[in-house]
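Q: What would this complex look like in 3D?
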Amino acid sequence: QSALTQPPSASGSPGQSVTISCTGTSSDVGSYNYVSWYQQQPGKAPKLMIYEVSKRPSGVPDRFSGSKSGNTASLTVSGLQADDEADYYCSSYAVNTISWGFGTGTKVTVL
Amino acid sequence: EVQLVQSGAEVKKPGESLKISCKASGFSFINYWIGWVRQMPGRGLEWMGIIYRSDSNTRYSPSFQGQVTISADRTISTAYLRWSSLQASDTAMYYCVRVYYYDVDANMGGPFDIWGPGTMVTVSS
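A: Here is my prediction, written as structure tokens for the whole assembly.
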């Protein structure tokens, strides 16, 4: 499974919103709703923020939301806070290859 | 507390073997698939493979098939990642993860909901 495509960077001021895209193919992102998003703060392990396209694990603020259209999934962070500054990775399970793939990663900067 | 506890950082020479561990705590090890994810310095995440309960239930990414071996000892709720001959290109952080749900027959591949803190492996002569 090839890496999913994300923009290398995104930014916004505190309180604003930022949206990150994740483009795959009809064999992964576009096939089933097994798209997840992970936040990795500097020096830390990744943390699950969104799963099954738009579901939030317990404890994740509702400022984080996910969606999907065709072969592209998106993560939106609303009401940006300094603590949101991190790398964000999307991931998708590919049924045809029975494997998981990750996106190229997006560095979010809070201005 | 639900967590994955990983073994400490390792510094090895090329050609040496290595086995790192991941112990599950706070949940039933035998009910979940456990996986490994690599992150090379300054790079992104790469899924390596998963294991369920025993060595006979493993799945590998094609990129890592034959390069590493994933095993488990369910009696001590621990998964392992092993190299028989390390290379400098194996230098990376290795995270173990819990797969929230997985059923290949039902075409279901869930997210990695619990992550260990990572084990840094450095291979240098």
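A: To summarize the key features: Chain A touches chain B through 26 residues (CB under 8 Å). Chain A has a mean pLDDT of 95.
Q: Very helpful, thank you.
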